[in-house]
């Protein structure tokens, strides 16, 4: 079990958040509802979706590396 208050827990949470927002960007109904704001608190979802779509290779490699770390090394 990964603790959210540790460094690796924060990394896991951040990667899952970026991947989820990038998925929301591909779904039209969720895109217009959740990712319409580009500023403020709701802008965090938009910015995470942009990071997930532009850096999809790096995010995917990071997810694989973190999964290997959590399953086998921790």
UniProtKB/TrEMBL annotation:
GO terms for cellular component: Golgi membrane. It is a single-pass type I membrane protein. Keywords: Golgi apparatus, Membrane, Signal, Transmembrane, Transmembrane helix. The chain crosses the membrane at residues 6-24, 44-72. InterPro entries: Kish-B (IPR042863), Ksh1 (IPR009653). Involved in the early part of the secretory pathway. This is Protein kish. It comes from Oryzias sinensis. The lineage of its organism: Eukaryota, Metazoa, Chordata, Craniata, Vertebrata.
């Amino acid at each position: 079990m990964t603790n959210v208050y540790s460094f690796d827990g924060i990394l896991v949470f951040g990667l899952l958040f970026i991947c989820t927002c990038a998925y929301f960007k591909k779904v039209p109904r969720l895109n217009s509802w959740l990712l319409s704001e580009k500023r403020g608190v709701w802008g965090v979802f938009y910015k995470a979706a942009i990071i997930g779509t532009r850096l999809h290779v790096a995010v995917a490699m990071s997810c694989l590396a973190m999964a290997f770390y959590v399953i086998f090394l921790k």
